[in-house]
Amino acid sequence: MCFRVAMFSLHTSPIAPLGRTRDAGGMNVYIRELSRELGRSGISVDIFTRRSQPDTPNIQRLSERVRLITITAGPAEPLPPSALHPYVSEFTCRVARFAERNDHPYDMVHSHYWLSAAAAAPLARLWDVPQVTMFHTVERLKAQQQGLALEATSAPRDHAAAIRIESEGRLVTSTECVIVSTELEGEQLRRLYGLSPSRTRVIPCGVDLDAFTPVTPARRAEARRALDLGETPTLLFVGRLDPIKGIDLLLESVALLRTPARLLVVGGDPSGDPEVERLRARATGLGIAERVRFPGAVPQRDLPTYYHAADAVIVSSRYESFGLVAVEALACGAPVVASAAGGLPSIVRDGENGLLVRWRSPQAFAERIDLLLSDDALRAQLQANARASIEQFDWRRIGDRVRDLYQQLAAESTSAVACSCF
Ligand code: UDP
Question: What is the 191 CA–ligand 1 centroid distance (Å)?
Fold first, then answer.
């Protein structure tokens, strides 16, 4: 019998449209791609997510050996993560019933984000299997990045934040293994929640090297034609329109550029998204409205066209636990300018495969972007190194490392059974 993993993504579906809302981005990609890779290698994966639309089928096949199971818990409508804690135990009970009805024993529980970790912990105990958790973000770190004193946040978010902090503290110490995508994230979880190094495993996120193909002169010309970019130097931002992404700072940087470059902001919903309207107004206030376009979120399969067309991809985040957009851009051979924040320096190495900006100032960003746009030799050198620098993040390699971890934990677990998959 095959090794079976119960993957938990309670608050967001791995097939939700990416970048359109604040709740669907890198984590969704991670769960979808990791599951596909595990499935390819012979492991069965059931991904459990909460029903947020009444008509979603209960069971969907996503790829070989990978199913998405939609569980009703709370109202069948989209809810923000901060409103979901009251439905966690209902979710747990329904997953337990599903597994029982389907005579579906699992060998491993792998949970993403604290809500999933909380839902999965009792099931790991019930099934007597190890639990692997990825937090992706934690409340204490989020508050720190936003410069909030936790006690200064106002109710009811205050209450939700307090529950989250208490739960994260408990889950960090009860789960068998916590996967972090960088050493820095491991260090932060140690400092903020007391995560033990012996239960930490650093495994970076992956990239689909077949989908994100390297740019060629022909691809670049075709992409620029398709996006109607003409000769104007073009900067690209891709991501959720969340304050943590530093888009305000990016707009301020564009206003300071010596090169009259245009900026494409990919993400959000250009028809009626208040954040797009706010950013548009900000661009107008800075006098650069005619140089900034908001095409909205773009399906991931179409993103290579954007990366191929761009003269530079800018990742101006205040913080990134990893930074998939930077990896995808480098896979496509695009020059990257990124802030030296969170996991980004583990991907972008200054002067080698991109430029890192150490100061969170629009001036510093503008200087680096101007340098890149004006120095053809530098751009060519960074582009030449880009693809090779991220081949280490090939999903096939990352999938193998996660598989090795499962194998190790299963072997250590008292309930371990011999499994032909490993
Ligand atoms: N993304 C996309 N379309 C968009 C915006 C984003 O497909 O319009 C994808 C992007 O390709 C990347 C992910 O969303 O894989 C964002 O991941 P990242 O790690 O950069 O940011 P996070 O969402 O985790 O903060």
Answer: 28
Q: What are the tens digits of pLDDT across the range 229-239? A: 999 999 999 99
Q: What number of other Cβ atoms are within 10 A of residue 241's Cβ? A: 25
For ligand 1, whether the C-beta of 88 sits within 6 Å is no
Which one of 15, 141, 238 would you pick to mutate in the ligand 1 pocket, going by the greatest count of ligand atoms within 8 A of its CB? 238
If residue 263 lies in a helix (H) or strand (E), which one and from where to where?
Answer: strand 262-266
Which of 326, 335, 351, 356 has its CA nearest to residue 261? 335
Mean pLDDT over 8-15 rounds to 97
Check for a shared fold between 4-206+394-418 and 217-393. Answer: yes
pLDDT at residue 157 is higher than 70: no
**Strand pairing category for 336-339 and 355-357:** parallel
CATH, domain range 217-393: 3.40.50.2000
> Hey, what CATH topology would domain 4-206+394-418 get?
Rossmann fold (3.40.50)
Question: What secondary structure, in 3-state letters, does 207-234 show?
Answer: ECCCCCCCCCHHHHHHHHHHCCCCCCCE
Ligand 1 centroid distance, CA of 44 (Å) = 26
In angstroms, rounded to a whole number, what is the distance separating the alpha carbons of residues 225 and 38? Answer: 38
Instruction: Give me ligand 1 centre to Cα 284, in Å.
Output: 26
Kind of pairing, strands 336-339 and 312-315?
parallel
How many Å apart are CA 410 and CA 398, to the nearest integer?
Answer: 18
Find out whether the beta carbon of 292 lies less than 6 Å from any atom of ligand 1: no
Position 413 scores a pLDDT of 83
What is the pLDDT averaged over residues 402-414?
Answer: 92
Cα–ligand 1 centroid distance for 294 (angstroms): 16
d(CA 236, CA 334): 10
Please identify, by atom number, the ligand 1 atom nearest to the C-alpha of residue 323: 19
246 lines ligand 1 (CB under 6 A): no
How do residues 35-47 score in pLDDT, each as one tens digit?
999 999 999 999 9
Question: So what's the pLDDT on residue 152?
Answer: 46
Question: How does DSSP assign 233-249, residue by residue?
Answer: -EEEEES---GGG-HHH
Domain ranges of the chain: 4-206+394-418, 217-393
* Residue identifier of the C-alpha nearest atom 14 of ligand 1: 25
